[in-house]
Amino acid sequence: MTSQSQTISSAEFVQQLKKEIQAFPKIRIKLLSGGNQQKVLVSRWLMTTPDVLMIDEPTRGIDVGAKAEIHRLMSALAQQGKAILMVSSELPEIMGMSDRVLVMHEGRLTGEFTRDEVTQEKIMHAATGNVAAA
């Protein structure tokens, strides 16, 4: 995908969400489903045109369709050169979405892996403080 198509994807995401919520202009965000709450928050972030996004558990508690949408959007933003710092407790999400994985245990860095070298076992060893095995 080209940089232009990635930009359009992000803009289209925001536009699509605007259309979805226009039907309920005065609805409180907390009354939306988890997936729609996440979409609203991501759209708000994107309207500020950030170069860096810090995202904590971006897909926790949302349905599979919304999760796939957020993953596609994150990939598109990364292709645009945006930096994304994602915190997730879901190992498949970490391994599938990350170019580099940093693992911490008790406040200190215990592992650093590239996409090609990361495994669930390495993450778990580092997450339990077993630095030598990482």
How are the elements arranged and paired?
Layout: H1 3-22, H2 34-47, E1 52-56, H3 64-79, E2 83-87, H4 91-97, E3 100-105, E4 108-114, H5 120-127
Parallel strand pairs: 1-2
Antiparallel strand pairs: 3-4
Q: Helix- and strand-based class? A: alpha+beta
Flag low-confidence runs.
Answer: 1-7
Number of self-contained structural domains: 2
The overall average pLDDT, rounded, is: 82
In what range is the share of β-strand residues?
A: 15-25%
Task: Profile the largest sheet.
Answer: 2 strands, parallel
Helical amount: 40-55%
Number of strands: 4
Number of helices: 5
Name the helix and strand elements from N-terminus to C-terminus, one letter apiece.
HHEHEHEEH
CA-based gyration radius: 17 Å
Q: End-to-end distance, in Å? A: 34 Å
Based on CA inertia axes, which overall geometry fits? elongated
Strand order across the largest sheet: 1-2
